[in-house]
């Protein structure tokens, strides 16, 4: 595991700023403000932001958007599956909020190298908050399963303040329980 | 009164015309314990005069509410055998109560969770229909849609997972999809299971589930994405014609289709929404639910046919998949199971557990993760043994 928080390398901050830029675009589009960038060899190769309201597809999280951009591009380049897997294994994700269980599982399936996130996601988080899908500690039968390093708390205040502004306005597309997440069963 | 244990493990057998038995089993949000292994807590109990019951319960609820044991009754007609082990001291106010009514306390064990117990009250933990049982008509629908999913799963050149999203209020199929992780026009490759190995794998499926470490289960159904989500890159791709995608599991594709349908049927600006609860209030005609759904359906069909942007969008636009069911052949992985939480699916039916990556009871149990903002009910539908056989099943 990489160091948690602590000394933040300047390049990590720079990439997180780009992810926050994406989150702000989401905010301006009346989407839950989460954004991300994917980085390979020190360069941003894909960006994504939440588009769940626009698409009416609640799985269109920033990570999924950024991943699909890449896959599209790599397929145009005629890469084989093995080559695509090879590239994912060199990718770093910078995302403003801890990946949810769905995204955390996806990143594990793809075999991404490392994740840096802003604020924790204590309702849905799949990188330690609710489940720990980034670790590879389950039984050895899962051939091909790789874990990825995950470091949280990068510019978390900025990410949280975007959320706060958003929920003060109210998510125009969410029904009531979504705006005020109260347990009701 | 006892809580019937069958409420939590409802078994429903349905005999179809061809005498094959199907079974629908609720998968609870907590791992089931055998009765004798259930966690218990020690509690004080006392024999009381029945005429003091009301007063004692009222006073005890004031002094010492059973906050963590809401599922338990305070009074039961027969007493259980107690033991003499030490418990925390009784609060002074309760001691006074015991003294004034001259009660003899003893210690008994109370089940810690909402499972079968002599001291249980009838607590209904969810109002999602099906948990306490299915009508014969409902069971028949469940089997019909599971068969549809099965046909889809077998329609590819190899066995894949399949998903069918259904609106149970009118049994309309909202979306259907198969795994598209390996979907190539030329996907018949050397590792496609041939007929005889398929038969073998069906027979050994149950064994595999009982003892998953004994074999390499992922080899049995290599095309089923949720069983082998890490293995997408190990299979051959075939260049340009290929439309593979490592994350396009059946449930994800089905969600995408249902979202596309939503956008097509309700092309509003995206900021008008109606929860299904509101829909029924908004409808002017106060007739029976069935008639309402029929009239909605008629409107939807009219909309589809005429391709017009009518007033419908303000009326019945659903919020994501609220109220819908999904049928899957294999228990979904964490990615798919969480996607179904996000999309607000109401009930999940699957046929086979997924001991490698299943997130609805096998490896994880998302339906029991309290922090999530939505909870669906999960059911396993046991299929007749031969149903995976391509030739032998119709």
UniProtKB/TrEMBL annotation, chain A:
Instruction: Report the residue ranges that make up the CMP/dCMP-type deaminase domain in this protein.
Output: 10-138
- UniProt record, GO biological process: tRNA wobble adenosine to inosine editing
MF terms per GO, please?
tRNA-specific adenosine-34 deaminase activity; zinc ion binding
This protein's superkingdom?
A: Eukaryota
The record's annotation in InterPro entries points to: APOBEC/CMP_deaminase_Zn-bd, CMP_dCMP_dom, Cytidine_deaminase-like
Cross-referenced SUPFAM superfamilies: Cytidine deaminase-like
What's one Pfam family the UniProt record gives for this protein? dCMP_cyt_deam_1
CDD domains assigned = nucleoside_deaminase
Instruction: State the protein's name.
Output: APOBEC/CMP deaminase, zinc-binding
Entry keywords, A to Z: Hydrolase, Metal-binding, Zinc
From TrEMBL, chain B:
- Any GO BP annotation: tRNA processing
UniProt lists the family membership as follows:
Belongs to the cytidine and deoxycytidylate deaminase family. ADAT3 subfamily.
State the protein's name: CMP/dCMP deaminase, zinc-binding
Quote the SUPFAM superfamilies the UniProt record gives.
Cytidine deaminase-like (SSF53927)
UniProt-listed InterPro entries:
CMP_dCMP_dom, Cytidine_deaminase-like
Query: What cellular-component terms does GO give this entry?
Result: cytoplasm; nucleus
Keyword DNA-binding on this protein? no
Q: Where is the CMP/dCMP-type deaminase domain?
A: 242-363
Q: Which PANTHER family match?
A: CYTOSINE DEAMINASE FAMILY MEMBER, INACTIVE TRNA-SPECIFIC ADENOSINE DEAMINASE-LIKE PROTEIN 3-RELATED
Which one Pfam family would you cite for this protein? dCMP_cyt_deam_1
Keywords in alphabetical order? tRNA processing
Q: Which GO terms describe its molecular function?
A: tRNA-specific adenosine-34 deaminase activity
């Amino acid at each position: 595991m990489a160091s948690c928080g602590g000394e933040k390398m300047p390049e990590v901050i720079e990439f997180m700023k780009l992810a926050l830029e994406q989150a702000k675009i989401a905010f301006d589009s009346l989407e839950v403000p989460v954004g991300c960038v994917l980085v390979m060899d020190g360069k941003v190769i894909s960006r994504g932001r939440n588009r769940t309201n626009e698409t009416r597809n609640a799985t269109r999280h920033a990570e999924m958007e950024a991943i699909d951009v890449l896959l599209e591009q790599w397929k145009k380049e005629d890469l084989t599956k093995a080559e695509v897997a090879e590239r994912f294994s060199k990718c770093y994700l910078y995302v403003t909020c801890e990946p949810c269980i769905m995204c955390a599982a996806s990143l594990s399936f793809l075999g991404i190298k490392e994740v840096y996130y802003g604020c924790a996601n204590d309702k849905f988080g799949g990188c330690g908050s609710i489940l720990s899908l980034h670790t590879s500690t389950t039984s050895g039968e899962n051939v091909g399963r790789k874990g990825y390093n995950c470091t949280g708390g990068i510019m978390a205040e900025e990410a949280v303040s975007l959320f706060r502004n958003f929920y003060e306005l109210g998510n125009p597309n969410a029904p009531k329980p979504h705006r005020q997440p109260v347990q009701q069963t | 009164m006892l809580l019937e244990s069958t409420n939590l493990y409802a078994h429903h057998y349905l005999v179809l015309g061809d005498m094959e038995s199907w079974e629908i089993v609720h998968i609870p949000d907590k791992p089931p314990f055998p009765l004798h292994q259930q966690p218990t807590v020690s509690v004080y109990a006392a024999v009381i005069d029945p005429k003091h019951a009301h007063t004692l319960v009222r006073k005890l609820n004031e002094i010492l509410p059973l906050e963590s044991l809401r599922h338990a009754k305070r009074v039961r007609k027969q007493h259980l055998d107690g033991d003499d082990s030490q418990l925390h001291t009784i609060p002074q106010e309760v001691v006074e109560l015991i003294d004034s009514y001259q009660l003899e306390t003893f210690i008994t064990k109370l089940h810690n969770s909402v499972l079968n117990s002599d001291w249980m009250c009838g607590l209904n933990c969810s109002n999602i229909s099906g948990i306490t049982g299915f009508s014969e008509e409902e069971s028949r629908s469940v089997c019909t849609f599971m068969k549809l999913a099965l046909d889809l799963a077998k329609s590819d050149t190899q066995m894949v997972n399949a998903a069918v999203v259904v609106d149970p209020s009118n049994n309309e199929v909202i979306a259907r999809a198969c795994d598209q992780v390996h979907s190539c026009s030329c996907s018949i490759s050397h590792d496609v299971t041939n007929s005889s190995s398929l038969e073998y794998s069906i027979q050994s499926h149950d064994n595999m589930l009982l003892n998953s470490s004994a074999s390499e289960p992922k080899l049995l159904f290599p095309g089923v994405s949720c069983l082998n989500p890490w293995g997408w890159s190990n299979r051959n791709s075939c260049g340009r014609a290929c439309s593979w995608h490592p994350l396009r599991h059946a449930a994800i594709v089905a969600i995408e289709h249902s979202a596309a349908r939503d956008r097509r049927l309700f092309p509003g600006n995206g900021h008008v929404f109606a929860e299904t609860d509101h829909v029924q209030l908004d409808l002017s005609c106060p007739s029976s639910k069935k008639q309402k759904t029929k009239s909605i359906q008629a409107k939807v069909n009219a909309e589809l046919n005429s391709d017009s942007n009518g007033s419908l969008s303000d009326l019945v636009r659903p919020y994501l998949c609220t109220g819908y069911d999904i049928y899957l052949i294999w228990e979904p992985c964490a990615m798919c199971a969480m996607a179904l939480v996000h999309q607000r699916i109401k009930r999940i039916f699957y046929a086979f557990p997924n001991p490698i990556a299943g997130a609805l009871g096998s490896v994880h149990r998302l339906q029991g993760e309290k922090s999530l903002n939505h909870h669906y009910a999960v059911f396993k539908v046991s299929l007749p043994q031969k149903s995976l056989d391509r030739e032998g099943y119709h």
